[in-house]
Amino acid sequence: MTTSLSPLLDPEARHVLDLGREAAAPPFESGTPEEARRAYDRSFPELQGEREPVASLTERAIAGPGGPLTLRIYRGQGATATGAPALLYLHGGGWVIGNLDSHDEICRWLANMAACVVVSLGYRLAPEHKFPAAIEDCRAALSFMQDGAGDLGIDARRIAVAGDSAGGNLATVLCLLARGDKNPPTVQLLFYPNTDALQAADSYRRFAEGYGLTSATMAWFRDHYVSDARDIDDWRVSPLRAASLAGIAPAFVAIAGHDILADEGEAYAKRLLDDGVPVVLRRWPGQIHGFVSMGRHGPSARQAVGAAVAAWRGFDPAFANTQAD
User: Fold this and answer.
1) Across residues 12-36, what is the average pLDDT?
2) Which residues form the active site (predicted)?
């Protein structure tokens, strides 16, 4: 039953919540990280949308700061053989769970809708690899794309970054870290990003339980990621706390209305605007956290990805003569 939940929930979100209650899986915080990963790996195939074909799909290993990193490279339908726009995708999962497979359909959609090359990164996970391991891996992947653009058939001047939830956090931090690069990211596409590890926003109270991602689970994720409370104030963990966001890439920010991260996503979009960064802010008022990974159960997931691609095209003049799906 979902009668105690908000009447403003989209039917597809309510259906996914019903499925979760029927499964009666224990919360991640009741077990170990490895148990959480196994549970997540069992659950995400029942939520994902269609894994549509792309023009090509390859995997390769690159050197990372903590050892080899695996990249999955998608060349979308219609992407040019050379000089294509590119996107580095950073998966969500609270820095603890998630992998290349859990966000495969999103990467396929992005590659085809934007006729681009998407590089998805399997970064190191916490708590085995605490902050800043994940962001160091993201930096390495971006550098690989910048330096190896010719080999990848991409334009080093047209690399965007994207991510959902904790991946959105990593994408925002990466844009801040890369401000001084020769070819910094040109756009950031953020789906319900985590931007403040203090976890004190009012949406943590409004949606603390019953809407998928709970406040208790989010605290469990964060506490596995950081080494101690001092890391919470570090802008590389909480980009909302950066002294300035000026000069970073224009942003698309997607907000789920019934999400504990809603308020900090809104706050980050406002900070960007206040610091002179162009923003396209889109809200899905009836949706819950993670809805972009729930394409099997309704159209909102693909609509959000399409909106992100449309924003990217609007920010990049080279897309002027093409149309998004």
Assistant:
1) 95
2) 165
